């Protein structure tokens, strides 16, 4: 093996995460379906592999930051003879967000093929990914978790061990439930203030001065104030996360009334053509409801 670490998936989150590893001196081998996204990594000193199998051949730990289960399965060759060759003797680290049931099944397949598996979903959007301040949640066999934890410092400000798979992903869904409902409430507060003629900057100042202020509230309040919906976490991505949380809630027979309202609002935001905008753009769905006839609200 030529390097220790591989990284598959260089999207909005994956590319800055991988860049932080390279800049910290990690010997990294990378691959992305859209090859042009690899060029900043090549310039920073990473090796660009020809295909995912090449990444596995060269490394012992492989991070996956891929969009969903089908993308992971395709990249790993799951269901093909190449899967075992890829994962045998490696630690496969799933850093994206999928259903807990999917992750449980992937762990079983990786272990059956002679590999080890760690869940390591992260909390945070593009900004924390760029600054290396993501929060990681880890789950898996303890020695594998320890090996992964020793590598993720350049990407993550903190890491929390959550137990066996799929408890890291379940923790991530709980965190995302809070995030989604919080940002939606913040958007509604700004919409309420605007409709009452209040000064949005003063609202931001009041929120920042009080106990409800957070890094998220400050970032999203500024976006709402400036009508700046450049993406950090997209509406489409949030809607998909909302669906995963709802499915997990239904499977556990849990009521999730706030989440259900958010699901409707983010779906309406997509229908308004704002799917690739930042999640703060959910305010557009609130505005559309306000503008609709009372009977339709």
Automatic annotation (TrEMBL):
This is 3-hydroxyisobutyrate dehydrogenase. Belongs to the HIBADH-related family. Residues 4-160 form the 6-phosphogluconate dehydrogenase NADP-binding domain. InterPro entries: 3-OH-isobutyrate_DH-rel_CS (IPR002204), 6-PGluconate_DH-like_C_sf (IPR008927), 6PGD_dom2 (IPR013328), 6PGDH_NADP-bd (IPR006115), HIBADH-like_NADP-bd (IPR029154), HIBADH-related (IPR015815), HIBADH-related_NP60_sf (IPR051265), NAD(P)-bd_dom_sf (IPR036291). Pfam families: NAD_binding_11 (PF14833), NAD_binding_2 (PF03446). Keywords: NAD, Oxidoreductase. One of its GO terms (biological process) is organic acid catabolic process. Residues 170-286 form the 3-hydroxyisobutyrate dehydrogenase-like NAD-binding domain. PROSITE patterns: 3_HYDROXYISOBUT_DH (PS00895). The active site is at residue 172. The keyword NAD applies. Coiled coil: none annotated. The keyword Membrane does not apply. One of its GO terms (molecular function) is NADP binding.
């Amino acid at each position: 093996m030529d390097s220790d670490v591989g990284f598959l998936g260089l999207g909005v989150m994956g590319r800055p995460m991988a860049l932080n590893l390279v800049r910290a001196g990690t010997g990294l081998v990378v691959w992305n379906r859209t090859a042009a996204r690899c060029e900043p990594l090549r310039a920073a000193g990473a090796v660009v592999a020809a295909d995912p199998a090449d990444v596995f051949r060269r490394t012992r730990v492989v991070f996956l930051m891929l969009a969903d289960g089908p993308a992971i399965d395709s990249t790993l060759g799951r269901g093909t003879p190449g899967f075992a060759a890829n994962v045998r003797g490696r630690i496969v680290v799933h850093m994206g967000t999928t259903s807990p049931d999917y992750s449980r099944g992937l762990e079983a397949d990786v272990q059956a093929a002679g590999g080890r598996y760690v869940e390591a979903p992260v909390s945070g959007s593009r900004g924390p990914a760029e600054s290396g301040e993501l929060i990681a949640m880890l789950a898996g066999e303890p020695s594998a978790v320890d090996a992964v934890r020793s590598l993720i410092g350049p990407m993550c400000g903190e890491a929390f061990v959550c137990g066996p798979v799929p408890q890291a992903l379940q923790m991530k869904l709980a965190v995302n439930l809070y995030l989604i409902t919080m940002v939606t409430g913040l958007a509604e507060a700004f919409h309420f203030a605007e409709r009452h003629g209040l000064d949005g900057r003063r609202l931001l100042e009041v929120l920042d001065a009080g106990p409800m202020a957070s890094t998220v509230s400050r970032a999203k309040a500024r976006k709402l104030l400036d009508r700046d919906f450049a993406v950090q976490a997209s509406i489409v991505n949030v809607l998909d996360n909302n669906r995963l949380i709802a499915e997990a809630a239904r499977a556990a027979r849990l009521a999730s009334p706030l989440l259900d309202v958010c699901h409707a609002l983010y779906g309406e935001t997509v229908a308004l053509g704002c799917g690739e905008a930042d999640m703060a753009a959910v305010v557009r769905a609130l505005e559309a409801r306000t503008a609709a006839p009372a009977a339709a609200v």
